[in-house]
Amino acid sequence: MRMKAVVIQEPRRTGLLSIDPPQPGPGEVLLRVRRVGLCGSDLNTFRGLNPLVRYPRIPGHEIAATIEALGAGVPATWRAGQTVTLNPYTACGACSSCRAGRANACRENQTLGVQRDGALSEFACVPHGKLLAHAGLGLDELALVEPFSVGFHAAARGRVAAGETVLVLGCGTIGLGAIAACALRGARVLAVDLDPRKRALAAELGAAEGFDAGAGLEAAVRERTGGHGPAAVIEAVGAPQTYRQAVELAAFAGRVVYIGYAKAEVAYETKHFVAKELDILGSRNALGEFDEVLAAFAARRFDPLKLVTHRVSLDEAGDALRDWANDPNPVTKILVEVGA
Ligand SMILES: [Zn+2]
Ligand SMILES: [Zn+2]
User: Fold this and answer.
1) Domain architecture of the chain: domains with CATH
2) Distance (Å) from CA 88 to ligand 1 centroid
3) Which of 115, 128, 175, 281 would staple 110 via disulfide (CB 3.0–4.6 Å)?
4) What's the CA-to-centroid distance between 88 and ligand 2, angstroms?
């Protein structure tokens, strides 16, 4: 038996492969892949802008699947037919992050579809320790757990607390996850994006108010915060301008969290760092937030499926990446339906 897999052969060229399915080794499970969410990092791989990727590469790390077979030594908590998602990161266990209990920021981290082949295919094998399940969640929801976990981690890094005002710059998938997390923590969320459609999504996920990213933003934010600025700013764009805005807009003694990778060097007015005594924090991947997100989805605190703007089949996934690269604005989340 052969399986189909979508491969990015080189920047801007995809292919549909027919290859042998993987065999589960000891401690591994064979998954029948059902849904794969396409991520901004997959788009960057397609565009040739992801420095961590070597080609050819099978992308895909936002996964919902059913367990097809168990390798030797997999505990009986897992059984064939069970619906799961997974943590797509692999940490080294030895670096300073890992030893500090922060494996999400592992120096040697390998993410499925980035440093190793992903799951945009009919079958995939993963170690059983990576699996996550929650009864009552559907395939579409399970495929959205990882990107929401990244946003939830940013809220945790920013120590966002009830009653605070938080500014989130950028309402893409990760920014929207951060908005949902901050709202669940009881914060008042101000959401910023150029696109009114994305500001409307932000409101659905719990933002109190949305703002255009253009001129007048600074005055509007000051006005909404009694002149103080937000207690925390979460940057989820990755542009030099928003990197700077974050420190300019944050309140004195506030926190700034960066999730986006800035694609160019950023020039700063550094006086804000010291005069405001800012906590400036990076936020990478996710740690315990997977369980938080599963619980939030199961409690139906908000509807994560609002993010899904496009659905395609596995055969169409390569074209979907190309269309996304050519016209990114209409896309929030593309779900690849690998199997029913
Ligand atoms: Zn992702
Ligand atoms: Zn490590």
Assistant:
1) 3-148+286-337 (3.90.180.10), 159-282 (3.40.50.720)
2) 9
3) 115
4) 15
